[in-house]
Amino acid sequence: MPTPLDPNDTAVVIAAWPTGHVDYRLMRWLIDAQGIPWGSIMVTKIQPRISAYNVGVHDALENGKTHLLFVDHDVVPTGRTGHHPSTDEFLQAAQGDIICCPCRLDIPGAWAKPDAFHCGMWRTTREALLKVEPPWFLEDYSPDGRELVNCCCAHLARRASSAGLTVGRAGWAEHAVKKT
Predict the structure, then answer these.
(1) Rounded distance, CA 47 to CA 98, Å?
(2) Does the pTM of the predicted model rise above 0.85?
């Protein structure tokens, strides 16, 4: 089970496609609230998203830090609101080897299943992630290739479970409001 993050032994990878821009509230939360040193934060704007996620995991493992935190550029950490826990609870109360922080998604029923896992914000340890063989992220299609059966997030969760790791979720985060 992951222990609370040690800010000085944590690598953060932010997937910031296509522009490289990151929501300022996320950066303030990482640096000011969590104490993550600026030099421990990596930003990638590689596309497509699945490539960005796989490169991010590879680079985080190469970094050598014990704790690994992966975040999409538009995730906004929150305090406790209504029936949602705070994003901090994702770091403090998480149970599992690989933990995601639920967040608002434009996918109906995205969090309906108790084992649902999505990669807008997730964390693990280097030791745990080394047990999962690459590629960490792939989309799974029906045999005829016409229907997406599982998103790349479910692929990681399934591979982690097959490697004997526990997958969980804790906390809550929002997504930045996109201007139209």
Answers:
(1) 24
(2) yes
